[in-house]
Amino acid sequence: MIKNEIKLELEFLYEKTLEGTVNAKKRKQDQYRRIISHLYYNGVASIAEIVKTAKMSQPLVASLVEDLLGFGVILENGIGESIGGRRPNLYCMNPEYQYVVGVDINLHTLNLAVFDLNNQLIYREEFKEFELENSSEYCQALIGKINVALDNINIGREKVLAAGISIPGLVDAENGLTHTHLSFAEEGLRAYLNRKLGFPILLDNDARTMALGEKAFGKAKDKKNVLCLNLSNGIGLGMILNGELHSGKNGFAGEFGHILIDPEGTLCNCGKIGCLETLTSGKILVRQIKEGIEKGQESFLAKYQDEGKKIDLRAVVDAILAGDQFAIDQLNKMCEYLGKGLVTLIHLLNPEMIIIGGRLAQAGKYIISPVSMWMNKYAMDKISSETELVNSDLLDDAALMGTMANVMKKIFK
């Protein structure tokens, strides 16, 4: 089986024009990227400020900045305050120099975005009924959506720095391989999409991508040990440990939904018995509510069924926020298992924060309060008291923002 045939290389447009020996080009590329990295992460800076972090001499930085202005990748941005002597020129990224495509693949929906180099969303679309299938037809539909998006905002393929893709299941991000979904292509999903789209592709598991989003743009910023739970139809876990994303040996770390909770329980879709995901997940919550309604249980959602509307996780969360007692009670029951599972993680990893994201995070206090109660009951107080449990501010967008963070992290690595 031919895998990973296309090597992942991320380059800015100007880097394709650099001349010289391989080593000379690599050295120059590194010097340029130190400057661009500083401007990307800090916004606006003078040459003197860049010198402090780039670890290059002031004359060299000044010369490189002139080159980058010529390439168009950075722009002049006014005059700074004087700290003695002449007021310095300020520089910033050119947000329109290139763009990043973000793709968040879910079991039943697809989120698509295009970002500029200032992390701003310039295009965003959600496709609510986009069922994930392990087929080339699904990928062709995905590619079509991406191409239409780029055409709509008049961005040529050469202007795409890369596409970051978030997908559920087992993902070998290093080699661009998926083992749970979209595993049909012999060459691997990354190589397949790269060949079809014509620009670099980065893949990772949705929970780890969510963690990158939280680290770059959310509540995990400036924190070193954070667990990020992706609670949607399933349960995923992204771990920031010692300030870095933890992926494990093969990139499979974080399968929190498949820890054993009930040895006498039901069969999980992973093939094992009694996984946490068989007791607490969006999929289970929806199923239990449907079963209750069919037995005559009163609920706002009974009207959905009577009117022939679909009872999905989005509808359940809306019902919970509207005060539907039956939906709230079912969520509370699930929170006990979730709390018990988190206690194990707290005792093992001693995180400073646990962030709940994904569709269920929109339930707000209705999920934070009961999970906190069960954590406090079962965890050692000295450890749990140092762990903050919070809802994500990014909610459903955490993984989508993480696709942008993944691309920029890779290019500045």
From TrEMBL:
Gene3D superfamilies: 3.30.420.40, Winged helix-like DNA-binding domain superfamily/Winged helix DNA-binding domain. It holds the Pfam family ROK. It comes from the Bacteria. InterPro entries: ATPase_NBD, ROK, ROK_cs, WH-like_DNA-bd_sf, WH_DNA-bd_sf. SUPFAM superfamilies: Actin-like ATPase domain, Winged helix' DNA-binding domain. Belongs to the ROK (NagC/XylR) family. This is Sugar kinase.
